[in-house]
């Protein structure tokens, strides 16, 4: 399926948000990561059950430390 991931076209076989994150990141950090699908923030507890559909928009944001 074709989705938009962080404003870039992305082809994936992942059917859930968790599978997409594992594919994209290699592993899922335990903290500091926020994800939205079609503009709606998805709680971490729902990543494994959040289904992706063709054409959806996924934004992955990570917290950075600094000053």
TrEMBL record:
SUPFAM superfamilies the UniProt entry points to: MoaD/ThiS
Superkingdom of the organism of origin: Bacteria
InterPro entries, sorted: Beta-grasp_dom_sf, Mopterin_synth/thiamin_S_b, Thi_S, ThiS/MoaD-like
Pfam families in alphabetical order: ThiS
Gene3D superfamilies, per database record: 3.10.20.30
Protein name: Thiamine biosynthesis protein ThiS
């Amino acid at each position: 399926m074709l989705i938009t991931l962080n404003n870039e076209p992305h082809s994936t076989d992942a059917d859930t948000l968790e599978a997409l994150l594992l594919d994209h990141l290699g592993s899922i950090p335990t903290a500091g990561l926020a994800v939205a699908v079609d503009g709606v923030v998805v709680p971490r507890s729902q990543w494994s059950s959040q289904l992706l559909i063709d054409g959806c928009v996924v934004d992955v944001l990570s917290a950075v430390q600094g000053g």
